[in-house]
Specification:
- This protein is an alpha/beta fold.
- The protein is about 35% helix and about 30% strand.
- It has ten helices and 16 strands.
- The strands form four sheets. Strands 1-2-4-3-5-16-6-15 form an eight-stranded mixed sheet. A four-stranded antiparallel sheet has the order 10-12-8-13. A two-stranded antiparallel ribbon has the order 7-14.
């Protein structure tokens, strides 16, 4: 394995300039969920020139590609997401977004370039591949219901024995990698609640059913979902993030609309929380003679990394980079549709550090100043390629 890791790191260095070029091209031309037409074409064209078999138009704008080694074996999948965010870029970079109101503020441009870099590396190492390496270039990670379920429906995981994916992390130094076994990222559900009362004059509240007061009670009571209904050693969040209602200082409005988010690290508690939200809201409304309409839109499920595959990936990273470049990644209450792949196939989702304080690269994802230390892409491409070869050898 010593020779293999040196060859992979050398090839990552060789293809680094091309990864930078691809990343900057994608960064300049960001496209939102399910509209990644130019990005998808660039990906497919690059893969075909690299010698891979390519299928375009998967899940509308996704791409599937494969490398088959000279040895027979199973299939390992490597996933990259391609969509941007509706953010106006403020980095001032020479390759900043040319598309107003759109920006690669979550690193998906680098994920895509890393995936292409891994394909280039593996195209030179076919003799080392025992089976198939399948590349999943996925649309719409940012927009629920996500592109992953549609990729799966169209055969992305057919015959796949394990799957690996990565995400950049601005809190970790460039070129480091981090792993977390078990539950790593939360499920994410959207809450839409309408509290209906009876309108009237603000000076005669006794003749109304004031939805504003009911709303205040509902917001506070919903916090007991976490403080009094969740094990203190477990993880969950409920946040009401939007309130709409009322139009004058002296008129009690007829209704108030609330929008919020529910996050959980437990599939079982998530189901319980859905039921409890209805009980809490309807109970308070009943006591106040108000009514409620409640809609909970289920988002991505809990992302659960396979323990064995995570330990395997961690050991591969230590072989490839050394002990000092591997860290224990923390759990996050953010969500990721890579969770859908992990519900079907064992694998792991890991972190790639992209921070460089000396260069001022510190902004977090989903920020209009976000960017990466591009040297981190060498580590990302090398890691994905090494995982594929070693994973097939297992």
């Amino acid at each position: 394995m010593s020779d293999l890791k040196h060859r992979i790191n050398a090839l990552a260095e060789k293809y680094y300039p091309e990864m930078v070029r691809l990343r900057r091209t994608i960064h300049e031309n960001p496209e939102l969920a399910f509209a990644e037409f130019a990005t998808s074409a660039l990906v497919a064209d690059t893969l075909e020139k690299t010698g891979l078999s390519v299928k375009r138009g998967v899940a509308k704008t996704g791409v599937l590609a494969s490398i088959h080694g000279k040895k027979t074996g199973k299939a390992v999948a490597l996933r990259s997401d391609m969509d941007a965010l509706p953010i106006q870029e403020a980095t001032g970079l020479p390759f900043a977004s040319k598309n107003p109101g759109k920006m690669h503020a979550c690193g998906h441009d680098s994920h895509t370039a890393i995936g292409l870099g891994a394909a280039m590396i593996l195209s030179e190492l076919k003799d080392e591949i025992s089976g198939e390496v399948r590349f999943l270039f996925q649309p719409s990670e940012e927009l629920v219901p996500g592109g992953a379920p549609y990729m799966i429906e169209e055969g992305a995981l057919d015959g796949v024995s394990k799957v690996f994916g990565l995400h950049v992390l601005s809190q970790a130094d460039a070129g480091t990698v981090g792993f977390c076994p078990g539950e790593m990222m939360a499920s994410a559900d959207e809450l839409y609640i309408t509290i209906k009362g009876k309108s009237g004059h603000g000076a005669r509240p006794h003749l109304t059913v004031d939805p504003m007061v009911v709303t205040a009670e509902v917001i506070l009571a919903l916090q007991t979902l976490i403080s009094r209904n969740l094990d203190p050693f477990a993880h969950g969040v409920i946040s009401i993030c939007s309130i709409h209602g009322g139009f004058a200082p002296n008129i009690v409005p007829p209704e108030i609309k609330l929008i919020g988010t529910l996050r959980s690290m437990s599939r079982e508690w998530r189901r319980f929380a859905h039921e409890r939200i209805h009980e809490i809201v309807n109970g308070i409304c009943y006591s106040a003679r108000a009514e409620a309409e409640i809609r909970i839109e289920s988002g991505y499920p809990v992302l659960v990394n396979d323990d064995a595959e995570t330990a395997f990936a961690d050991s591969c990273a230590r072989e490839l980079f050394g002990e000092d470049r591997v860290f224990r990644a923390e759990r996050l209450m953010a969500s990721e549709d890579f969770a859908y792949y992990l519900e079907k196939v064992p694998g792991t989702f890991y972190r790639l550090g992209i921070r460089n304080e000396a260069q001022g690269i510190t902004a977090d994802i989903h920020n209009d100043h976000f960017t990466i230390d591009e040297s981190s892409m060498k580590a990302g491409a090398a890691m994905q390629a090494y995982l594929a070869i070693r994973g097939l050898d297992q």
